[in-house]
Design a protein that fits this description.
Layout lengths: L3 E8 L14 H5 L8 H12 L6 E8 L8 H17 L4 E6 L6 H9 L4 E7 L3 H6 L6 H13 L3 E6 L8 H12 L5 E4 L4 E2 L3 H7 L8 H17 L3 E5 L13 E3 L6 H18 L8 E7 L3 H5 L4 H10 L3 E7 L4 E6 L2 E7 L3 H8 L1
Parallel strand pairs: 1-2, 2-3, 3-4, 4-5, 5-6, 6-8, 10-11
Antiparallel strand pairs: 7-9, 10-12, 12-13
Helix pairs in contact: 2-3, 7-9, 9-10, 9-13, 10-13
Organism: Sedimentibacter saalensis
GO molecular function: 4 iron, 4 sulfur cluster binding; catalytic activity; metal ion binding
Keywords: 4Fe-4S, Iron, Iron-sulfur, Metal-binding, S-adenosyl-L-methionine
């Protein structure tokens, strides 16, 4: 039986970070101000979560938010020791952290190993030095390459976080970042299209006309392409789009940029739409009624939010109607014109289909 995943989040705010990236307002993202967590905080939060977990739960303690391996070494050890205590007891199954590429050395990784760290996510954001400079990241492409290599060498699970749409970037540069990241063989990836958050330098740049955020459509397009590249290389994309939380909401904290509360859903819909278009491209469908047969779980991706994919298909192929027939446990999507099968694709091919269309 697959265990249910439970994440115990410990937010490590800006304290660990020597930098001020133009897009970052860590205070807002963590929702915790600049108060540093302590060993006691870790113990309290694990005890709280412990009440809700059982042997069917896979529990991960996650040090998120700042640059974990850059925080004061004594505090780092205090937090790690609290985590290791619960890992040794079998309450916590794994420990993860996120950090900056220039905060990784052999010594730092030896320390993480000693305390049972399993997964290290690197905020590489871009692998273009000019983009990194314009974003005031304070590290280089080479720092990301070296850190990834060291994390792999020490036997950790490697995560990459990338941010399409940073200042100075282009679609070409963002795709190159993705391909260069793939060459480093990360085990998992998060794709966070850049948002312009209040109280950041990026907002000043936007207001002065020095930065143009991606539109929602552009961000969905580029994320679909990046997601597809990772997927065809069997790299797990664990998140697309910034987490929607009480503190990150359009109109509240997001001043500009491609925010959507269900961003990943939009990306998945785009991938399915492309495969539907590819499957039908040689058909003469004027004024016809097509039926799409697919697994129940795929229906929302195929139809799109507010039937957006249905509307696009009708427009592109001048269809009279699109309807759906639900199947159970099927990976194949089949399209009929009355009873005649006119196209099909396996859901595993949506990524390659999308790349073929670019
Ligand atoms: S490295 Fe991370 S925490 Fe530090 S300023 Fe940049 S985004 Fe914020």
């Amino acid at each position: 039986m697959n265990k249910k995943m439970k994440i115990i989040p410990v937010f490590v705010p800006h304290i660990g970070c020597p930098n001020d990236c133009v897009f970052c307002n860590q205070k807002k993202i963590t929702g915790m101000g600049t108060v540093a967590p302590s060993g006691k905080y870790v113990r309290d939060i694990v005890e709280e979560y412990r009440k809700t977990i059982n042997e069917d739960t896979y529990t991960e303690l996650a040090f998120f938010g700042g640059s974990f391996t850059a925080i004061d070494i004594n505090l780092q050890e205090e937090l790690l020791a609290a985590g290791k205590h619960y890992k040794d007891m079998g309450v916590v199954d794994s420990i993860r952290c996120s950090t900056r590429p220039d905060a990784i050395t052999d010594d730092i990784l030896i320390l993480q190993k000693k305390y049972g760290m399993d997964i290290i996510e690197l905020g590489i954001q871009s692998l273009d030095d000019e983009v990194l400079k314009k974003s005031n990241r304070g590290h280089s492409r080479n720092d990301s390459i070296n850190a990834s290599m060291l994390i792999k060498k020490h036997g950790f699970v490697l995560g990459h976080q990338i941010m399409p749409g940073l200042p100075g970037s282009t679609r070409k540069k963002d795709i190159k970042t993705c391909l260069d990241s793939i060459a480093m063989h990360p085990d998992m990836v998060r794709i966070y299209p850049t948002l312009t958050i209040k109280d950041t330098e990026l907002l000043n740049m936007y207001e002065e006309g020095a930065y143009k955020p991606l539109s929602l459509e552009e961000a969905v397009d580029i994320s679909a392409e990046i997601y597809s590249h990772y997927a065809v290389n069997n790299i797990n994309v664990i998140r697309i789009g910034l987490q929607n939380s009480d503190s990150i909401n359009e109109g509240e904290d997001v001043a500009a940029g491609p925010f959507h509360p269900a961003f990943r859903q939009l990306v998945e819909e785009k991938l399915y739409l492309s495969s539907l278009i590819a499957a039908l491209k040689n058909e003469e469908l004027n004024d016809k009624h097509i039926i799409i047969e697919a697994d129940d779980k795929l229906m929302s991706f195929l139809a799109g939010q507010k039937k957006s994919n249905v509307k696009k298909l009708m427009e592109i192929f001048h269809l009279k109607q699109v309807s759906f027939k639900k199947l159970n446990n099927s990976d194949e999507i089949i399209i009929y014109d009355k009873n005649k099968k006119i196209g099909s694709f396996d859901k595993s091919l949506i990524f390659q289909n999308y790349l073929d269309l670019q």
